[in-house]
Write a structure and sequence with these properties.
The protein is α+β, with helices and mostly antiparallel strands. It contains 3 helices and 7 strands, in the order ααβαββββββ. The protein starts with about 30 loop residues before the first helix and ends in a 7-residue tail after the last strand.
């Protein structure tokens, strides 16, 4: 519904055409800026990195899948009954700098844990939102991190 990105709810009443009352009215002054700002930031990521906006499937070499140990995914990792983590490194065009960069996306749908890019020799991973740098990342429970490996294109 309108305003979801600002924390607005219709309290389960999803048919706005049947409601001519405060349930469907949008009070812009009451919207929560934090989720709206996050939505803006994620939309900015999609605009900045071509791999997040291109509707085409990945080609050979465009993506590297990572296990929670920071290593390339193995068959056993894919077949694990429960795996709350998925990591990927995308080779993508940075529309802001016009450079080819690597963008890491770390998705954690479980408990918090420490992740290390053990398969990567670089120390130059930069958290896109916090600005923290390094090859070691603390992932909060049920979170996602976006990191870029090229300092000249990070902002």
């Amino acid at each position: 519904t309108a305003g979801d990105d600002g924390g607005r709810t219709q309290k389960g009443k999803n048919n706005a055409y049947c409601q001519e009352n405060g349930i469907t009215w949008l009070d812009w002054s009451q919207l929560d800026r934090e989720p709206t700002d996050l939505t803006d930031s994620i939309a900015g990521l999609r605009k900045r990195f071509s791999a997040l906006a291109d509707p085409a499937f990945f080609k050979e070499g465009d993506v590297q899948w990572l296990s929670s140990a920071g290593q390339p995914m193995r068959v056993e990792d894919w077949q694990a009954e429960y795996n709350p983590f998925l990591g990927l490194i995308l080779t993508t065009q940075d529309q802001q700098t016009q450079k080819s960069v690597r963008l890491a996306v770390l998705i954690n749908r479980g408990d918090g844990f420490s992740f290390t890019f053990s398969a990567e020799p670089t120390e130059a991973w930069h958290d896109f939102f916090s600005g923290e740098t390094g090859s070691h990342v603390d992932l909060k429970p049920n979170s996602i991190k976006f990191l870029i490996d090229d300092q000249t294109s990070w902002s």
